Input
Amino acid sequence: MDIVEKVKEKIATRDRYARLTGVEILEARPGYARVRMTVEEKHLNSVDITHGGAIFTLADTTFALASNTHGNVALALSMTIHFMKATVPGARLTATASEETLTRRTGLYRITVEDETGDLVSVAEGLVYRKKDMH
Output
């Protein structure tokens, strides 16, 4: 099993919070990932739109997958997110994480979340620390 498949399997089976929220891995390759989530009742806030934490979880899971595909254990140092559009139950959200910069010890990623119509729901930027430990 190559490293990308190993990391995909690890996140799909061992990331308990991602599993709880119902995220689905669509694609991964070194420095890149796409993950989907269908908004359900459990993802809503008190005004019946998708909770920012649910969108953040989708973006963060995609960020984690993309940043770990090089083999080194990568852990988030920071992440900033901007919410652009509200969504409701039934929305199919797809997050895409793309590597912007990779050094020996850090990686910078841009993460977008779009709905099923292609409208931008959020934009995030995440920075990871790349440990010497390997997956």
The chain has a mean pLDDT of 96.
